[in-house]
Amino acid sequence: MASQHSETVHTPEKSQRNVLVVGAGPVGLAIALRLALAGIVADVVKKESRLGEEPRAVAYYASALITLDKMGVIPDIEKAGFFFSEGFCWRKLIRNDGQGGYTMGDMIARLSIPRDTKEPHDVGGILYLPQRELTKLLFEKATATGLVTVYFEETLVEIEQNASGVDATTRRGDTETIFQASYLVGADGGQSTTRKLLDIPLKGHSWSEKLISIDLLFEDPNLDTKFPTQFIVHPIYWGIITPFKPVEAGKRTLDRCAISLNPEDQTPPMGGIGLSTGLIDSEALCDILEMVILEGESSDLLDIYANEREKAFQIVVDPQSKQNKLRVQSDPDFAHENWLLRQLNSASPKFLEEIGLPFFQQWRVDMKEIVSHLSYCSFVFPKFIQCHTSPRLSSDCKLIPAII
Ligand SMILES: Cc1cc2nc3c(=O)[nH]c(=O)nc-3n(C[C@H](O)[C@H](O)[C@H](O)COP(=O)(O)OP(=O)(O)OC[C@H]3O[C@@H](n4cnc5c(N)ncnc54)[C@H](O)[C@@H]3O)c2cc1C
Q: Which residues cross the membrane (predicted)?
């Protein structure tokens, strides 16, 4: 028998400037906070009854820190006792120390994460902050603005676009609520209902390994405290160990271990670039939404956002994630056959800067700068088409990169 649904319509006061965010994970809350800081009202719906506490992300890269800095949360993160390190290392498997205990395996290579010296933000290295703490912090900051309301136990079930924006139906038990908003942002995770309702395919593939995430107390007198994140290189028992607190040699610290368990399940995120990417995406999206909602720019700019972020995924995130995984899933005795691990041990500052560049210039991009260049290019766009369709005019192409 079909259940009876009651229906309510939820229309926030400033409906011409409001955004509905689906998902109150760290990315959804980061978006809500950024929008609120710009004066835009944001409603956030979340299907569970409380904020997520799963043992997931701990470490975030420098580019994501610039995003967090723009939201003004770095001082709160530092006040709460979370910390930054210089980088990470690769090690062989943990081994028996011959005295009834275990010790970390020998170090294979280490990488200092460079700062983006061209950015005014004084952030760099890696930030260590458990995902549930980041989520809580963003929730508190966002709701304190008075412009963000988080509705728990509201599951998105339907989306309808109309002339004035979007009607999104959520369900809580037998009650349905329609949220009316100018724009809807789907930040509802890997199994996104928003994506499915909009019929957007999830392109990609799954690895055949399963990761287990557990928190353990570690103590090692020989630990390199500058590089506390450790990739464990092994063909079967590969993994990543990340501390929750600054490590001290010989002192116990709680660490998160994501370790490969057994073949035959789902794709693991590799190298800590999942949430960092989500945060960087959120910054790009909010830059565009501010231009569209507050400055009256065309909503076509959202297509430019989509192009740029898909490009960043294909050029940086996807290959980095794959190579991070393949690098740790290898024979530690032959690890130096990998070009990166081989070169890192004799790396010059120039080499470190060179491998760091894509993380600052392609992973995180400045949407405002891109849009300003594109507006100028729209004047030359017909010429651009022409020079690509007519071989005789090919020399004109040289003008285009100079303008772009
Ligand atoms: C073991 C592990 C370790 C990781 N380590 C790192 C790391 O060190 N660094 C890093 O950058 N990344 C890491 N990641 C990846 C990171 O955890 C994810 O990228 C991150 O959770 C994505 O956040 P999100 O806000 O996009 O989505 P989620 O955290 O998945 O949140 C989705 C939200 O959407 C809501 N939702 C879903 N469906 C609906 C619906 N129909 N209606 C309403 N609400 C809905 C959920 O309730 C939730 O609030 C790790 C992941 C794992 C599993």
A: 20-42
DSSP states along 146-208 = SSEEEETT-EEEEEEEETTEEEEEEEETTEEEEEEESEEEE---TT-HHHHHTT--------S
In the sheet with 155-162, reading across from the earlier edge strand, the strands are 6-10, 175-181, 165-172, 155-162
H/E stretch holding 213 reads strand 209-218
**Residue nearest (by alpha carbon) to ligand 1 atom 21:** 275
Residue in this structure with the two tokens 């998902």, named with its chain if needed? 23
- The pLDDT of residue 357 is above 50: yes
The DSSP output letter for 113 is P
Highest mean pLDDT, choosing among 25-39, 262-276, 389-403:
25-39
CA-to-CA distance for 57 and 31, rounded, in angstroms?
18
103, 93 Cβ separation under 8 angstroms: no
Atom of ligand 1 nearest to the CA of 48: 47
Mean pLDDT of 6-32: 82
**Per-residue pLDDT at 396:** 25
- Per residue, what are the HEC states of 266-281? CCCCCCCCHHHHHHHH
